[in-house]
Design brief:
With 164 residues, the protein is mainly α. The protein has 9 helices and no strands. Helix 1 packs antiparallel against helix 2. Keywords: Membrane, Transmembrane, Transmembrane helix.
Length: 164
C-alpha cells in the first residue's frame, strides 16, 4: 500500500472518529455514535471490492486493488455505497426517529458518509457531483464523464499506459 493511500485511509478514519465524537457530545451515546460514524466513514469503501469483482472476479491481486486498476480497466465508477443521496436520506431519517440511540446511529452514519465523500472529492480531485449515484447512472457510470475536463486527458492516458 502506498503512503498516499495510507494517508487517504487514515483521513477517513480520523474524520469518522471526529464525527463520532461530535455526536457523543450531543447525545452522550459513545458506542453507538462512534461505531455508526466508522461504518459510514470507513466501511463505505467496501464497495471498491464490488467494482473490483466486476472487472477481475475473485482473482484478488492487492496491487491491482490498491492502485484502483479496476476503475482504469473497466472505465466505470460504480462505487454503489458512495452517494450523496444516502447522506440526504439519513439526514431526513433524523426527523423520523425519536429515540436518542437511533438518532445517534443515523447521525453517525450520515456524518461519517458526509466527511468521507467530502474527503474523497477533495483528495481525489473529483467534482462533488461525481459522488452522486444519480449523476453516475446518468453518465452510464463512465469515469471519463465524471472527471473535470482538465483531468480527463490524464485519466485517458493512464488507461492506455497500464497493461493488465
Amino acid at each position: 500500500m502506498s503512503a498516499e493511500l495510507a494517508l487517504h485511509l487514515s483521513a477517513h478514519f480520523f474524520a469518522s472518529i471526529f464525527a463520532g465524537y461530535l455526536i457523543w457530545k450531543i447525545w452522550q451515546k459513545p458506542a453507538a455514535s462512534f461505531l455508526a460514524a466508522i461504518a459510514g466513514g470507513v466501511f463505505v469503501d467496501l464497495d471498491h471490492f464490488i467494482d473490483y469483482y466486476f472487472v477481475f472476479g475473485f482473482d484478488l491481486r492487492w496491487d491491482y486493488f490498491f492502485n484502483g486498476y479496476q476503475f482504469l480497466k473497466s472505465g466505470k465508477d460504480y462505487i454503489f455505497f458512495h452517494g450523496w443521496e444516502y447522506v440526504l436520506i439519513l439526514f431526513f431519517l433524523l426527523f423520523v426517529f425519536k429515540n436518542k440511540s437511533a438518532k445517534s446511529v443515523v447521525l453517525g452514519l450520515a456524518l461519517g458518509m458526509f466527511f468521507h465523500l467530502s474527503l474523497d472529492s477533495a483528495l481525489n480531485g473529483l467534482p462533488v457531483r461525481s459522488y452522486s449515484i444519480i449523476e453516475r447512472a446518468k453518465n452510464n457510470f463512465e469515469a471519463e464523464k465524471l472527471v473535470e475536463p482538465e483531468r480527463k486527458a490524464e485519466y485517458l492516458l493512464k488507461r492506455q499506459i497500464i497493461k493488465f
